[in-house]
C-alpha cells in the first residue's frame, strides 16, 4: 500500500537538529565555517526529510526542473495540501448468504450479477417465490391475524354455548369469523363471555393478532409496494391480511392472508446476486443465494498505523483505471485490525524465522461509497487509488524543504543567493523564517525578511 505522508516542521530546531540526523546548528560569524556547516546541515536535512517521509532527494519544482545542491530557487506563492494516497479495490463489497427460511426443492434461480429490488424474487422453492423486502430484522415467524385456540374451546358444547360455530348468538361473532378469528365462546351471558375472553388471553386460549416490530417492518414494505388500506403499526390486523391477499394474488400464490417465514428474506436495500450455491432441482440450503450490494464501492485494507484519513464521512477522490476520477465518501471503518499478509502466511509461528513475517502493519477494512454511480463509468471492478486531502494552506510562500537551514539561536533560515542582499539579518548570511505546513517536498515559510520572488541558495 502506497501512503504519502506529510509532516509539519516545528519552530524549535530540535526535530531536524537531533543527533539522529548528525547535524550541527549554523553559528553566526566565521563565514568560511558557516558555509561549510551549512553544507553539512543541508545534507543532513535531506536525510531527515527522507526519514520523515517528506520526499527528500531532488524534488521537482512547481515550474519544472530539479533542485540540486549549489543551485538556486525562488520563493514562490501557492497552495500546499496534505494528501494521502492509498490503494483500493473497486467492486460490490463483501458477499453474504441470503437467510432463506423456505424448505423444499429449488425450481428457479437468478443469474449471477442480477439486481433484485424490493418485491422481486430471489429464487423459487416448490414453485413459490421467495420475495426480497427491505429491513434489519430477519423473518423469523409466520405473520397472520388468525387467533390461536385452546382445546377446551374447540370441543362441542360447554357452558359458553355456541362453540366455534360461525354466526352464533353473539352479534360480534360473525365479524370475528369473517376475520378468520374463530372459537370464541358464544351465548348471551355478557359477563361469562368477558370472563372466558380474559381467561383465554391469560392461558393458552385465544391470542390476538401477531404483534411486534417485525410486523411494522413488513407492513412498511407492503405499503411501499402499493398494497394499502391498513395502518402501519405493530399489529397484523384484519385489514393487513386483506392487503396480503391482494399481494399474494399478484404473485400467483394462494390467497391465504398469512405470510409464512419462508416467503420472505430481508436485506438493507437492493441487492446484486453474487453467486448461487445450489442447482435447480436440489434441496434449498443456507448457501442457495449469496448477495452483495447493488451499488459499486471501494474497499481499502488501510494500515492500522496510518488511519488519520479514514474517518467516517470524510470526502475522498478515487482515481480509476484510465485516469478518470470520482468523488466518494468514507462510509464505514472496521473496528478490528487483521494480521498483515506476511503474518497470516507465516501462521504466527515464532520459530519460523521466515521471510517477511510481520513486515507489514495490520490492516483495517475501510469502505468508500459513491452517491453518483454513473461517475464510476462502466467499470465494475479493478484496482484504484484513493486520495484524501487533509490540511490545506492557500496563497502562502513556499520553498523546497532542502533549502531550510537550522539556526543556532533557534528556528530555521534561508540563504539568499546574494550574500550582500538587504534581506540578510543578524544571523549572518541567513534570513530567519517561520515554518508551517510541509507537503510534496515543499515547506511554508513566512517572516519579515522573506518575500515572493526572492532567490535562495541550496547549499552544496
From TrEMBL:
The keyword Ligase does not apply. The chain crosses the membrane at residues 34-54. Residues 349-359 have a biased composition (Gly residues). Pfam families: PG_binding_1. Residues 211-259 form the Peptidoglycan binding-like domain. Gene3D superfamilies: PGBD-like superfamily/PGBD. This is Peptidoglycan-binding domain-containing protein.
Amino acid at each position: 500500500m502506497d501512503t504519502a505522508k506529510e509532516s509539519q516542521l516545528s519552530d524549535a530546531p530540535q526535530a531536524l537538529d537531533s543527533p539522529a540526523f548528525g547535524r550541527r546548528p549554523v553559528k553566526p560569524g566565521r563565514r568560511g565555517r558557516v558555509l561549510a556547516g551549512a553544507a553539512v546541515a543541508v545534507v543532513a536535512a535531506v536525510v531527515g526529510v527522507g526519514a520523515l517521509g517528506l520526499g527528500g532527494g531532488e524534488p521537482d519544482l512547481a515550474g519544472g526542473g530539479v533542485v540540486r545542491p549549489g543551485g538556486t530557487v525562488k520563493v514562490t506563492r501557492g497552495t500546499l495540501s496534505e494528501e494521502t494516497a492509498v490503494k483500493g479495490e473497486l467492486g460490490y463489497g463483501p458477499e453474504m448468504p441470503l437467510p432463506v427460511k423456505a424448505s423444499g426443492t429449488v425450481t428457479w434461480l437468478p443469474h449471477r450479477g442480477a439486481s433484485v429490488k424490493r418485491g422481486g424474487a430471489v429464487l423459487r422453492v416448490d414453485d413459490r417465490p421467495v420475495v426480497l423486502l427491505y429491513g434489519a430484522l430477519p423473518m423469523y415467524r409466520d405473520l397472520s391475524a388468525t387467533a390461536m385456540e385452546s382445546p377446551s374451546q374447540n370441543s362441542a358444547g360447554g357452558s359458553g354455548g355456541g362453540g366455534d360455530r360461525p354466526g352464533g348468538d353473539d352479534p360480534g361473532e360473525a365479524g370475528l369469523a369473517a376475520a378468520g378469528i374463530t372459537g370464541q365462546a358464544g351465548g348471551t351471558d355478557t359477563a361469562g363471555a368477558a370472563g372466558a375472553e380474559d381467561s383465554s388471553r391469560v392461558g393458552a386460549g385465544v391470542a390476538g393478532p401477531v404483534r411486534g416490530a417485525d410486523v411494522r417492518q413488513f407492513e412498511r414494505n407492503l405499503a411501499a409496494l402499493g398494497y394499502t388500506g391498513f395502518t402501519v403499526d405493530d399489529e397484523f390486523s384484519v385489514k393487513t391480511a386483506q392487503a396480503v391477499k391482494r399481494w399474494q394474488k399478484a404473485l400467483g400464490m394462494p390467497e391465504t392472508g398469512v405470510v409464512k417465514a419462508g416467503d420472505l428474506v430481508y436485506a438493507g436495500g437492493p441487492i446484486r446476486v453474487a453467486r448461487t450455491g445450489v442447482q435447480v432441482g436440489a434441496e434449498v440450503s443456507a448457501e442457495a443465494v449469496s448477495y452483495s450490494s447493488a451499488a459499486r464501492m471501494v474497499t481499502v485494507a488501510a494500515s492500522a498505523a496510518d488511519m488519520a484519513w479514514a474517518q467516517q464521512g470524510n470526502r475522498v477522490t478515487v482515481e480509476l483505471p484510465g485516469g478518470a476520477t470520482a468523488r466518494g465518501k468514507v462510509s464505514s471503518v472496521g473496528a478490528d485490525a487483521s494480521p498483515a499478509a506476511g503474518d497470516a502466511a507465516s501462521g504466527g509461528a515464532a520459530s519460523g524465522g521466515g521471510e517477511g513475517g510481520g513486515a507489514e502493519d495490520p490492516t483495517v477494512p475501510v469502505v468508500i461509497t459513491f452517491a453518483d454511480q454513473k461517475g464510476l463509468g462502466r467499470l465494475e471492478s479493478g484496482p484504484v487509488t484513493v486520495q484524501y486531502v487533509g490540511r490545506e494552506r492557500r496563497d502562502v510562500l513556499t520553498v523546497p524543504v532542502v533549502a531550510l537551514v537550522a539556526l543556532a539561536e533557534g528556528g530555521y533560515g534561508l540563504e539568499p543567493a546574494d550574500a550582500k542582499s538587504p534581506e540578510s539579518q543578524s544571523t549572518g548570511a541567513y534570513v530567519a523564517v517561520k515554518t508551517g505546513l510541509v507537503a510534496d517536498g515543499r515547506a511554508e515559510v513566512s517572516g519579515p525578511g522573506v518575500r515572493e520572488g526572492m532567490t535562495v541558495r541550496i547549499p552544496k
